[in-house]
């Protein structure tokens, strides 16, 4: 079937094997929450140093980095992501306080200040010994899970905090109600908006299509996502990353239709591809998909940024600028649905994820709106492999860095199995 065939991305997008109790960690007495994110430049002078950080180890010259910096340059050299993380940090702090949960929220980035190593050092110097990490990436692949785990592992090693500061991580939350429900609300509003635009244009019955958009990744990374060396699972399209998006999109639209009566054919599309042209990445690109749909007679497009937590640069440029310009050029009525951002339901959901792992204020129930979840607390051996070479990592069944080397309970030791991109 065509990638744009709605039947190719239907509600059956689930894995064969359910996640078992063995994937859980016992609750702990954490003394802080680490909000970890991608980071972004906050001025024109930051752009090239930031891009050097993102591409470090790849030998890309500054001249090439300047060529790909245009979307930052066009926005004053500022990515929205850092301010959005400040707002998310404040919202998490407020919700934790409202529930009487005494856990400070620390913030560290992979590619721009505040950097993760300094955040961990500051945490240790302030007396913290057990941190629980929440990342701004909901899905499983190298860039959205394992790379965070490696960045923490390398930071603990570089700061000589391995064995002295313990860092764990909440599960990937692609199908947690707190992440899904803001998209249900936004998709229903987006469908109503596009229908209203078509009605105003005198074509109320014109075909509408929903594009669930996420970050493209190399197909090899997609195939490695969710992989386990000793606990095989079967995923649609051979990839946990793809299957998670398909299943979550189906769950969103099922809820939209049940609650509002609105529906439309839909597909999963990709954006923000980078890297060498000869390396295969997930397709179709959203702009190619829009052109194909226009050729098929579609007159309205609803873009749902399902792969992303906040309206960062890859949303405001790749979707709000490029994709919506493609729609305008083709004469299509279009709208882009909001990301969860600091939506109250999303913030509440993140605090629920934290409470799944804490002794105090513990929430034992682990909701999941697809058959793929709830995902593992402890990533399985071999999951989301780093094809550039293995690095120290935390929060995996084969990890020792940052755990004191005996932090995982015996029930999880040796367990088979395991990570908007942001």
Report the radius of gyration as a whole number of Å.
21 Å
Distance between the termini: 30 Å
By CATH, the architecture of the largest domain is named 3-Layer(aba) Sandwich
**Quaternary:** single chain
**Strand order across the largest sheet:** 2-1-3-4
Strand content: 5-15%
The low-pLDDT segments are 1-20, 404-420
Number of domains: 2
What would the CATH topology of the largest domain be? Rossmann fold
Structural class: alpha/beta
- C-alpha geometry: globular
Question: What percent of residues adopt helix (DSSP H or I)?
Answer: 25-40%
CATH class of the largest domain: Alpha Beta
According to DSSP, the number of beta strands is 8
Helix and strand succession? EHHHHEHEHEHEHHEHEHHEH
* Distinct helical segment count: 13
Instruction: Describe the main β-sheet briefly.
Output: 4 strands, parallel
Detailed description of the structure:
The protein has 422 residues and is α/β, with parallel strands linked by helices. The chain folds into two domains: 172 residues, Rossmann fold (3-Layer(aba) Sandwich), CATH 3.40.50.1400; 222 residues, 3-Layer(aba) Sandwich (Rossmann fold), CATH 3.40.50.1400. It contains 13 helices and eight strands. The strands form two sheets. A four-stranded parallel β-sheet has the order 2-1-3-4, with helices on both faces. Helix 7 crosses helix 9 and helix 10 packs parallel to helix 12. The longest helix has 24 residues.
